[in-house]
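Good day; I would like, with your permission, to put a structural problem before you. What I wish to show you is a protein chain and, alongside it, a tokenised description of its three-dimensional fold. Here, with my thanks, is the record as I have it:
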Amino acid sequence: MKGVVFNLLFVFAVLVVVSEGLIESYPKTEYSKGAKVTLYANKLTSSDYFVPYGYYDFPFCRNEPLVKQKENIGQKMSGDDITESPYAINALEDVECAVLNSYVPNCDYYSQDQLQRFVDLINKQYKVLWFLDNLPGGERRSFIGPNGEMQEMYYLGYDLGSANRDPEFPDVISINNHASITVVYNKKEDSDDVYIVGVVIEPKSVQYNFEMWNKTRLNNCVWDVFNAQPVNPIEGGTTILWTYSVKWEENQNIQWSQRWDKYIGNADSQIHWFSFVNGLVILGFLTVVVVFIFVRKIRADFTMDGEIEEVGWKLIYGDVFRPPKWPNLFSAFVGAGIHILVTSTIILILSVFGFINPSNRGSILTTSLSSFVLLSAFAGYFSERTLKIVHGSRWKRVAFFTILAFSGTSFVIYFIVNMALHARNSSAALSAGTFTWVFVVWFFVPLILVFVGVIIAIKKYEYTPPARVNQIPRQIPEQRWYVSQWIVIPIGGILPFAIVFIEFFFIENYWWRGAIDSMAFDIVTLLMMIIVCIEVSVILCYFQLCSEDYHWWWRSFLVTGSSGVYMFLYSILFFVSKTEASGVSVVVYFGYMLITSWGFFLVTGTIGFLASFSFINRLMTRIPID
């Protein structure tokens, strides 16, 4: 055990270095007056339709040729397509109503088909995501903080356009062809140089007069609700004038290290605290029950002189370690569950301590993939350990089952999702070459490491149960309805999911809406979830043994693992109540949610089994056997 802990710490240290090496941090950039500041266009996303598109997959004004940033695998899977834009922005120089069409040729006329593409995006409430100095442009909104004071935060992106909700003009759809960009900056001490600490974008839709077309600057860009730029598809197409304004706004209260704070979702901190208190209440209740079982019930099962009354769980000590059905599959599930749990814990720790942060776009997906691959030996090691506990012998089969348990199933689901994204020409669809690379890294490299872990466990680990298994299985008495597996298993998953469902709501809400959330609460929630799984498993396992039912292996896994089913059911509820998605978006959403719920099933099920096994192992050692 000490060796395993040492290896875990060593791998953690390696992952810290790897995470910093794979995801290069964005350096602090200082700008002198007049210095060029490049605006990058990224992608179009919608909170209701989960298919992102590259910004320049649509006919916006662009540089020729396009200059793109190099992207990591996490950015590619997220649909990032970061490209230099033609917007001319210079440090500390305000711009009023610059006409982009005046120095970008061939971006003013739009055909009927092109207009229809814009209309489709606007009807689906797509947002535009830009970057300036690695900060995403967003809309500034205010909220009342926990102390009652007004605070502000930036919501990523701005609306591409708007559809008229007035029933008298149901078909009027306008596009935001003017962007008012506010660059928030702070001055460097003892210097006139500045660094950027915020980017706010206020979009407008303005229909300009024809005499304005040949000008590079306009006197003003007056927005009028009755004078918006329509994009309704008409025969012969139409022309659109693109304009922008830039305002530099000083704010000495925001330091470089704090510039991401306004992007991270802190408006809901009170609900996070409510989730934390909710978890503590459930945890406290279960802890009282467990203490009662250990201190009162189990101690009462032993007489004062150490003699044991032959009733209840004590009658099945010769059958309690009888191997379960499908031991190879069971061992593979346990190994895969430990693998996911260790990987998730490391990712959360790296996030909380700042090794993974929003400034490194795609870092969480890239580091998660790297960590999962590097830690695959854990899956093989613990699946083989479990195989020895259940008296199995087909270690090669277990190794293949282990890699298929999560890596295989998740890859098949992701393949379907990727094909669906390709069907819509999404920027999140991986090319054939990239997808092949992901397949090799996600499947074949872990397969090798799983076999390494299995071989280590074969040589290093042996298990002898504290009680011999009788040759003839004991007959299990008829069970009462309330201890039936059809009752216990669904009930057992409720409390572990109750611990995480509020945080899961925020994760899902921020994930699909492209926002950023703090993970500080997530690691506490994970810890409480682990403890609740342990306590639920021990309580229900004790009652099962008291009813003289020794088929506890799979039940201990499924009792807490059923919380994964509740997670998927909740994702259905979220989809129905919070989105308006259809078509390919349904495949994308439920594909990712199925992977998440299946991983949660394996993790919680594994925790439940390990808790029950430790409990039974300790309990049976107290029974004197002749």
